[in-house]
TrEMBL record:
Location relative to the cell: Membrane
Primary residence: membrane
Family, as annotated: Belongs to the MscS (TC 1.A.23) family.
SUPFAM superfamilies: Mechanosensitive channel protein MscS (YggB), transmembrane region, Sm-like ribonucleoproteins
Keyword vocabulary terms for this entry: Membrane, Transmembrane, Transmembrane helix
Keyword Transmembrane helix belongs to the record: yes
Protein name as it appears in the record: Mechanosensitive ion channel domain protein
Annotated Mechanosensitive ion channel MscS domain residues: 120-185
Cited InterPro entries: LSM_dom_sf, MscS-like_channel, MscS_beta-dom_sf, MscS_channel_2nd, MscS_channel_TM-2
Membrane topology: Multi-pass membrane protein
Membrane-spanning residues: 36-57, 78-96, 102-125
Length: 302
């Protein structure tokens, strides 16, 4: 029995010595095995439960902020980033690794990390700028380099766009800051559409009745936006064979999921209301309602 006690006592002393064994000393702080094990355990626990913490924060913020999804998303990201920094500092303190140590090794690592993680750091900084300036928000309809879609997520690395073909496109945040971005719904969702309608020139043609019929078609469209300006209809061209009318009207882009929906719905309405006329329809390029630059920036004569 005494032999077993001695053996257990020996094992206990060895484990105690291993637990308190100093691996290295950094700036006067002894980094022991116990510190490393506790830091690793805390890191693994944080890695495992980080998803639950993120979900808890998201639910708390959504319960407080229901109207502004983008503000809730920005607050959520800032809280998670702050919690991550505090968590990393806590792990380093438990491991007895002083923060001032990184001042010595930072110079050596700065070049390597700077070159290897340049794009990652750039995307992260761009995400902070997006959260502060808010050039786009969750739910906005944006267009960049020919890609048109709805913003579904603004992350630390990229913005996720859901196109009208239900394709998820990941756009790096730094690319959003460096390239031109068209936000169709930044201040409102009204955009201007132009339609050219040509009809054969006949002696019985009554242009006033034709204009009234066109106005009725546009006014009955469900997505037509009631803007300060009414629907504009102009007789823009007269030749020996036909009349050409130009229609300018505003529509609410938030009410349809595909730009082709406007053309399809309008074509059907024209067929129903212009049964007594022969006509052809041409759709010029969509005209942006909001100019890219302020008119006050233009110099006289531009």
């Amino acid at each position: 029995m005494e032999e077993i006690y001695n053996i257990l006592n020996l094992i206990g002393r060895n484990l105690h010595e291993i637990w308190h064994y100093t691996i290295l000393t950094i700036s006067g702080n002894s980094v022991r095995v116990s510190n490393i094990i506790m830091a690793i355990a805390l890191f693994l626990a944080g890695f495992k439960y980080s998803g639950h913490f993120s979900k808890y924060v998201k639910n708390c913020i959504k319960s407080k902020i229901n109207s502004d999804k983008d503000a809730a998303n920005a607050i959520e990201k800032l809280i998670l980033y702050t919690a991550l920094c505090i968590y990393v500092v806590t792990i380093l303190e438990i491991a007895h690794v002083p923060l001032k140590t990184f001042a010595f090794i930072g110079g050596a690592l700065a070049i390597g990390i700077g070159l290897g993680a340049q794009s990652i750091i750039g995307n992260f900084i761009s995400s902070l700028i997006i959260m502060i300036e808010r050039p786009l928000k969750i739910g906005d309809i944006v267009e960049m380099e020919g890609v048109l879609g709805t913003v579904t997520s603004v992350g630390a690395r990229c913005v996720v766009l859901n196109t009208f073909s239900n394709v998820e496109v990941l756009v790096p945040n730094s690319k959003l800051m460096q390239n031109s971005l068209v936000n169709w719904t930044l201040t409102n969702s009204a955009i201007k559409h132009q339609v050219e309608i040509s009809t054969p020139k006949t002696s019985k043609f009554n242009y006033q009745e034709f204009i009234r019929a066109l106005k009725t078609v546009i006014d009955n469209l469900e997505f037509a936006h009631q803007h300060t300006d009414e629907t504009e209809i102009y007789l823009t061209k007269i030749d020996s064979h036909q009349f050409t009318f130009l229609i300018n009207f505003y529509c609410n882009i938030a009410q349809f999921q595909n730009p082709e929906y406007v053309k399809g719905t309008l074509n059907i309405a024209l067929l129903e209301h212009l049964k007594d006329y022969e006509f052809t329809v041409v759709y010029p390029k969509i005209v942006e309602l909001k100019p890219l630059s302020d008119k006050s920036d233009k110099t006289p004569g531009d």
